[in-house]
Write a structure and sequence with these properties.
7-stranded mixed beta sheet; alpha/beta; globular; 7 strands
């Protein structure tokens, strides 16, 4: 069974690989800006669905395509990838000592069957000094990440706790995706036992 991940994200590739799946990756060509203005959960569901549909139109109809999109949300405001270091520092300062949510929309499709779900994880940052924020931003790690941090890297030093799926904060909710794939005849645990 052919599986295609509609993403070039190294974090998503790693997580999907940890699920024991063999897959290829393709980058969807969609204009994400066209969907701005939607609320966070609707946005990630829509973008994951559009990514999966776009790739599904490019591959064998029997292939299973997985699309995902992740955003960070604080007080209803979506924090995307920072445009520059100043914006990264401002985002991190706004998260300091507070809770926020990480929302990931996940779509699995094969032929005419398409399922989209969303996973939400609550993350609590410890209080950060301006110097700590500057030091973290100067590493470059925040620059390609929603909310300007990566929990799987040095950004883990900023996180006091989470409630929910850790892998969702990295970029792909493994537990939810595993359950979704069962509906498409893919049992990750059974495959791993072979």
């Amino acid at each position: 069974m052919k599986i295609v991940l509609a993403s070039q994200s190294p974090r998503r590739r790693q997580l999907l690989g940890q699920m024991g799946l063999e897959f290829t990756t393709k980058s969807p060509e969609i204009d994400e800006d066209a969907f701005q203005g939607l609320q966070a959960q609707e946005l990630v569901q829509t973008l994951s669905r559009e990514k999966a549909r776009w790739i599904a139109g490019q591959v064998d109809p029997d292939a299973i395509v997985i699309g995902a999109d992740t955003v960070v949300v604080r007080d209803g405001v979506i924090l995307g990838k920072p445009a520059d270091e100043a914006q990264a520092e401002a985002m991190l300062a706004s998260l300091s000592g507070r809770d926020h949510q990480v929302c990931t929309g996940v779509t699995v499709c094969r032929g005419d069957k398409l399922v989209t779900q969303v996973e939400v994880t609550q993350v609590t940052f410890r209080s950060l000094t301006a110097q700590e924020i500057h030091q973290y931003v100067s590493t470059g790690e925040p620059m390609d990440k929603a909310g300007a941090y990566g929990i799987q890297g040095l950004g883990g030093l900023l996180v006091a706790g989470i409630r929910g799926d850790y892998s969702n904060v990295v970029g792909l909710p493994v537990c939810r995706l595993g359950r979704m794939l069962l509906d498409f005849g893919v049992d990750c645990l059974a495959l791993a036992g072979r």
